[in-house]
Amino acid sequence: MDDYMVLRMIGEGSFGRALLVQHESSNQMFAMKEIRLPKSFSNTQNSRKEAVLLAKMKHPNIVAFKESFEAEGHLYIVMEYCDGGDLMQKIKQQKGKLFPEDMILNWFTQMCLGVNHIHKKRVLHRDIKSKNIFLTQNGKVKLGDFGSARLLSNPMAFACTYVGTPYYVPPEIWENLPYNNKSDIWSLGCILYELCTLKHPFQANSWKNLILKVCQGCISPLPSHYSYELQFLVKQMFKRNPSHRPSATTLLSRGIVARLVQKCLPPEIIMEYGEEVLEEIKNSKHNTPRKKTRGRTR
């Protein structure tokens, strides 16, 4: 801790505290996560996994890892500080005023880019929610908080342990079924719905009723002024059968999201997605869903 000066607390949770710190020699600001280390060895190893996973992630839409260290029974993870707060704060600040569609899609595209990166590395985030999506003053969106993340043994593997925040948990987890990266897609859909309506897609007066609503998968439609393409996108992400939900790569290679990818990433990062995806992006206009209209009968 000698290299950092604590400026203030910026968050608190079951893990411990999040602090805004300043590096003594460079004067650069960072976010520091202070995690109380459990007494048991196995639980301590689980706490260390977040730092190990975060260190593997290098992407403009993922909160950057600087270093981690242990002192006085705590694990400290030093990360990039996002000076624009988080999406949950941003949604609350709207006070009922809806976001414009182009802003929603720009943020959502950046989220998809971050999620696609971790899925390619066989990592499930497992706690994607508006509070874990961070913003910078220059318009960048970054996925953070890998405290619940899990590294899969292979791309086809499934996880079974319940984790997550109830409002964002997909039906397969509530039904005690094995799940894969499509669970993150459901959670991403919940955030997209939140950005469009400023409220959770599933709301109830008890956890039992909330779980029931999630498992039924019925959501109220988006406000009518949003485009058909955006409404179609939301519906695809809320498919009850996980295999019917699009992957992050599919989201990035088709329709309205595909057309924004090159605006959201520097050229050297775009190449990460390979020729196949870039070719699909070029042809995305052929894959864009169109609203069906009835012809007149004579």
From TrEMBL:
GO terms for biological process: cell division. SMART domains: S_TKc. ATP binds at K33. Its cofactor is Mg(2+). It comes from the Eukaryota. Keywords: Acetylation, ATP-binding, Cell cycle, Cell division, Cell projection, Cytoplasm, Kinase, Magnesium, Metal-binding, Mitosis, Nucleotide-binding, Phosphoprotein, Serine/threonine-protein kinase, Transferase. GO terms for cellular component: axon; cytoplasm. Pfam families: Pkinase (PF00069). Residues 4-257 form the Protein kinase domain. It is found in: Cell projection, Axon; Cytoplasm. Its EC number is 2.7.11.1. Its main location: other. PROSITE patterns: PROTEIN_KINASE_ATP, PROTEIN_KINASE_DOM, PROTEIN_KINASE_ST. Coiled coil: none annotated. It catalyses: L-seryl-[protein] + ATP = O-phospho-L-seryl-[protein] + ADP + H(+); L-threonyl-[protein] + ATP = O-phospho-L-threonyl-[protein] + ADP + H(+). GO terms for molecular function: ATP binding; metal ion binding; protein serine/threonine kinase activity. SUPFAM superfamilies: Protein kinase-like (PK-like). Interacts with PXN, PRLR, VAV1 and VAV2 and this interaction is prolactin-dependent. Belongs to the protein kinase superfamily. NEK Ser/Thr protein kinase family. NIMA subfamily. This is Serine/threonine-protein kinase Nek3. The lineage of its organism: Eukaryota, Metazoa, Chordata, Craniata, Vertebrata.
